[in-house]
TrEMBL record, chain A:
<keyword id="KW-0274">FAD</keyword>
<protein>
    <submittedName>
        <fullName>GMC family oxidoreductase</fullName>
    </submittedName>
</protein>
<dbReference type="Pfam" id="PF05199">
    <property type="entry name" value="GMC_oxred_C"/>
</dbReference>
<dbReference type="InterPro" id="IPR003953">
    <property type="entry name" value="FAD-dep_OxRdtase_2_FAD-bd"/>
</dbReference>
<keyword id="KW-0285">Flavoprotein</keyword>
<dbReference type="InterPro" id="IPR000172">
    <property type="entry name" value="GMC_OxRdtase_N"/>
</dbReference>
<keyword id="KW-0560">Oxidoreductase</keyword>
<dbReference type="GO" id="GO:0016614">
    <property type="term" value="F:oxidoreductase activity, acting on CH-OH group of donors"/>
</dbReference>
<comment type="similarity">
    <text>Belongs to the GMC oxidoreductase family.</text>
</comment>
<dbReference type="Pfam" id="PF00732">
    <property type="entry name" value="GMC_oxred_N"/>
</dbReference>
<dbReference type="InterPro" id="IPR036188">
    <property type="entry name" value="FAD/NAD-bd_sf"/>
</dbReference>
<dbReference type="Pfam" id="PF00890">
    <property type="entry name" value="FAD_binding_2"/>
</dbReference>
<feature type="domain" description="FAD-dependent oxidoreductase 2 FAD-binding">
    <location>
        <begin position="12"/>
        <end position="57"/>
    </location>
</feature>
<feature type="domain" description="Glucose-methanol-choline oxidoreductase C-terminal">
    <location>
        <begin position="456"/>
        <end position="575"/>
    </location>
</feature>
<feature type="domain" description="Glucose-methanol-choline oxidoreductase N-terminal">
    <location>
        <begin position="203"/>
        <end position="349"/>
    </location>
</feature>
<dbReference type="InterPro" id="IPR007867">
    <property type="entry name" value="GMC_OxRtase_C"/>
</dbReference>
<dbReference type="GO" id="GO:0050660">
    <property type="term" value="F:flavin adenine dinucleotide binding"/>
</dbReference>
């Protein structure tokens, strides 16, 4: 395909994908004086256009016609539960909602902004230290990241300052300073903004969780609790809890997005060239496949062109990054039979279930109020914060009320308590009661990596450009189901302390396969993981391809297994971490950063 | 298969679509035939009946909403991956039929009316409400067959669009008089709770408002 392709003027760095990871890398590379071309397959977008009130406050367009999301008609994935099945195309949006267009999913995400727990970074080592190697279930590919919390701390701090994150710290430089999460690691500085106010349901949850003996804290939120100017000079307004957060561009300029927090500055930079409507087909390699020479893409007129570059940075989102590596021949594809090869290995998801608590009919829970990242959580059963020994599972789950705003169509769909019909007068009564007087509590659990859960290229279905779709082989495993069931029972304890009128504890069921029709989260991870062993990781600890040293791959694809937290805080910190090492070491002498 | 051009166009095309400007009453359907329209009105009003909790789907102009949607890219399947082959598999792997919403309505309504005719000798719209409910439940539980379309697929499509029509912004043709939002207690496009976020457990005093500024 590259033979007859038009060749453009070479640049220093080409970046594939215009979301958080791409925008951070582009900012850092232009700061380092490198010329950057950022290629984004979707349209150019800005908060001024997509977030203009009141037209933007349209639930049908945003959440049911997926205005800001990936165009599945051009490109999707196939999915199956195990390798004996035929994987079938994910034809309609449901379980997960990848983004598209300038800003990526960062334009319309929710904003929960975490630092990963230190133990999660060395999960394999930690589990073996605490419980012995025999504790790891057969078939689980438990791994370490190859980087420590202390190494990443400055980059978590930097990301929070760029995002304008609101939160309450617990410990700064080893001293307890506030009422934040008692399980969270020491920080070098405060959050740039104080925590958001609790909405009513979060307030009730905080009280009840305390009564039940847990340690509630305010979710760190990239929704500005006050006016803020970030280190790049980008301005944010205070979040008004509008309730149109997840799936929407923020009309208040309060939710951190690449479009508000980075791109306004980047777009002015003479070394930065943003090209929207450009779908990258593959990374071009030199004859011996050791060096990338650029990328080939289709431009907005449908012409196939080649952009030569000294360095290629993939920031196309977790599974698109893995697919581009497979399509380009970067790294050895994973073979689940032999448990060898690295590209496609350790594909993971978020193990989340949502339970519902009904309060007295005199109490209005006002679920339409909310901010995407706001809420109250407890971590007593997350990470290694509790003794897994007697429980016999690996992994954990924070528990929270994260009321991002429940709107009318969503309320109609979720209906009444279990057993209520889906339509007719009984549905109406149950749905109205549920909307007015209930609240939702999530167990937002980790998902471990397994030998037979992986990504590869589909043998049958192709995208609109004639390239094979990515194939996901995924199912829930007993270890993760047991973890979910244990933690959801703790939600029962909290609901009791709340004086619930009725409780519906939603748990994963043994033997019930992953269902692509039900929305879960877009927190997909792994598939091209970081690590210190090229036999089990596609990327070294600087997110550099072990095989092709001038390719860096930034995204949740780097997570060796899932965590209980939302991914973006970690993705942003990893982007700044990789950028730091590219700037301080790689640019001066290009070559492998780890040996 | 779709061509390579027009990558940048999608996603923004909906915003300027003519379906967003609301046609004047009385409404004449553009997509549905008169027999289909009679089915749609009757079925919608069984799915959301008028009762002590608020208006029914007919008063909320849900059929009009669905007809207007049939003119949007969504109804042509433009947002779905519709490349062949179409292979059926377990339900949990999701929708695998070659039909866009317009096809599902056309075939599904014909199927419902055929079942009504076989069982009761009349089209669906002319049946007593209890018989209509029986047929709808039959479709919901996949007990009817409409050629190669499982009846539950048609039912789910219809139910989803009915919910959308009753509870989306009136700019799309349904939720007339903001009746859907009012019964739910949803304030609509107010979208500013700076002063209300910590008024715990209290009833929000302002009525719903729409994108166009209509209030209830
Ligand atoms: C509704 C929703 C709510 C969320 N809420 C949270 C939250 O509260 N907290 C949290 O931590 N995370 C949240 N997430 C996840 C978060 O959005 C992602 O982790 C984050 O945006 C990932 O950033 P990224 O840069 O890796 O990828 P993206 O933002 O997906 O950007 C990748 C970009 O690459 C482009 N691209 C892909 N392939 C190609 C190609 N071949 N050629 C050119 N361009 C390409 C895509 O169009 C896209 O714009 C949420 C996600 C969704 C959908
Ligand atoms: S809830 Fe806050 S951050 Fe989210 S869209 Fe509304 S104003 Fe913006």
């Amino acid at each position: 395909m590259s033979d007859d392709a038009r060749r453009l003027k070479p640049v220093d760095v080409v970046i594939v994908g215009g979301g958080w990871a791409g925008s951070i890398m582009a900012k850092e590379m232009t700061e380092a004086g490198r010329s950057v071309v950022m290629l984004e397959r979707g349209p150019d977008r800005s908060t001024a256009s997509e977030g203009a009130y009141p037209a933007s406050i349209d639930e049908l367009e945003a959440n049911f016609r997926y205005k800001l999301f990936q165009d599945l008609s051009k490109n999707t994935v196939t999915i199956r539960n195990n390798s004996q099945q035929t994987a079938l195309p994910y034809r309609r949006m449901a379980a997960f909602l990848p983004g598209e267009g300038v800003g990526g999913a960062g334009l319309h995400w929710s904003g929960v902004h975490f630092r990963i727990p230190p133990d999660d970074l060395r999960m394999r080592s930690r589990v073996i230290e605490k419980y012995g190697a025999g504790f790891i279930p057969e078939g689980m590919n438990l791994q370490d990241y190859g980087v420590t919390y202390e190494e990443l701390e400055p980059f978590f701090d930097k990301a929070e300052k760029v995002f304008g994150t609101s939160g309450e710290p617990y410990m700064i430089n080893g001293k307890v300073v506030g009422k934040g999460n008692v399980f969270s690691p020491s920080r070098s500085d405060h959050f740039p903004l104080p925590a958001l106010k609790d909405v009513y349901t979060a307030h009730l949850f905080r009280k009840a969780a305390e009564e039940a003996g847990f340690h509630p804290y305010s979710l760190p939120a990239a929704n500005a609790s006050r006016q803020y100017v970030n280190p790049y000079g980008a301005q944010m307004g205070p979040c008004n809890f509008c309730g149109y957060c997840s799936g929407y561009a923020c009309y208040m300029y309060s939710k951190a997005s690449p479009n508000v927090n980075i791109l306004p500055v980047l777009r002015q930079h003479p070394l930065f060239d943003l090209r929207a409507g450009c779908h990258v087909l593959k990374v071009e390699l030199d004859a011996d496949g050791r060096r990338a020479t650029g990328v080939t893409y289709t431009d907005p007129d449908g012409k196939v062109v080649t952009q030569p570059a000294e360095m290629v940075i993939l920031t196309a989102f977790q599974f698109h990054n893995v697919r581009l590596m497979l399509l380009s021949g970067i790294g050895r594809p994973y073979d689940p039979v032999r448990n060898e090869g690295v590209v496609g290995r350790n594909f993971v998801y978020q193990n989340v279930t949502t339970s519902t608590v009904w309060l007295d009919r005199g109490v209005e829970t006002n679920q339409y109020i909310g901010a995407g990242g706001g809420g109250v959580a407890f971590d007593d059963f997350n990470s290694e914060n509790f003794d897994h020994g007697p429980l016999g599972f690996v992994g954990g789950s924070p528990v929270w009320v994260n009321q991002a705003g429940v709107r009318a169509i969503a309320a109609a769909h979720s209906g009444g308590p279990p057993g209520t019909p889906r339509w007719g007068s009984a549905w109406k009564a149950g749905m109205i009661d549920t909307y007015r007087h209930s609240l939702r509590i999530d167990a937002h659990g980790s998902n471990m990596a397994y030998r037979d859960v992986y990504l590869d290229l589909d043998p049958t279905w192709k995208d609109a450009y004639g390239q094979p779709l990515l194939r996901m082989t995924f199912d829930w495993k007993d270890n993760d189901i047991r973890m979910n069931r244990y933690v959801v029972d703790r939600i029962g304890d909290v609901a009791k302390a709340m004086g619930a009128r009725r409780v519906n504890l939603t748990k994963r069921e043994f033997g019930r396969p992953f269902d692509t029709r039900q929305y879960q989260t877009t927190h997909l991870g792994g598939g091209a993981v970081m690590g210190s062993d090229p036999g089990t990781s596609a990327l070294n600890r600087y997110l550099q391809s072990w095989d092709v040293h001038n390719v860096f791959v930034i995204g949740a694809n780097a997570f060796p297994q899932g965590t209980g937290y939302n991914p973006t805080g970690m993705v942003a910190a990893l982007a700044y971490w990789a950028a730091h090492h590219i700037r301080t070491t790689y640019l001066a002498s290009p070559g492998p950063l780890a040996g | 298969m779709r061509g390579l051009a027009g990558i940048a166009a999608c996603g923004t095309s909906l915003a300027s679509h003519p379906a967003r400007s609301r046609p004047p009453a009385p409404y004449v359907p553009r997509f549905f035939t008169s027999a289909e329209w009679a089915f749609l009105i009757a079925a919608c009003d069984r799915l959301i009946p008028a009762d002590e909790n608020g208006p029914g789907a007919r008063a909320l102009d849900v059929p009009r909403f669905i007809d207007m949607q049939m003119d949007t890219p969504y109804a042509f399947g433009a947002q779905w991956y519709m490349l062949a082959p179409f292979v059926q598999g377990p339900d949990n792997l999701g929708y695998q039929l070659p039909y866009a919403p317009r096809d599902l309505y056309r075939r599904g309504i014909a199927g419902m009316n055929a079942h009504a005719a076989t069982r009761h000798g009349r089209p669906f719209a002319d049946l007593a409400p209890a018989l209509q409910d029986d047929l709808l439940r039959g479709a919901e539980n996949n007990r009817l067959v409409f050629g190669d379309i499982p009846s539950s697929v048609f039912f789910d499509q219809l139910l989803a669009n009915v919910m959308e029509g009753a509870f989306s912004d009136p700019v799309h043709g349904g939720n007339t008089g903001l009746g859907g939002w009012t019964m739910l207690g949803f304030p609509g496009a107010r979208a500013d709770f700076m002063d209300w976020v910590d008024r715990y457990g209290a009833h929000y005093p302002l009525g719903s408002v729409s994108i166009s500024g209509e209030t209830a």
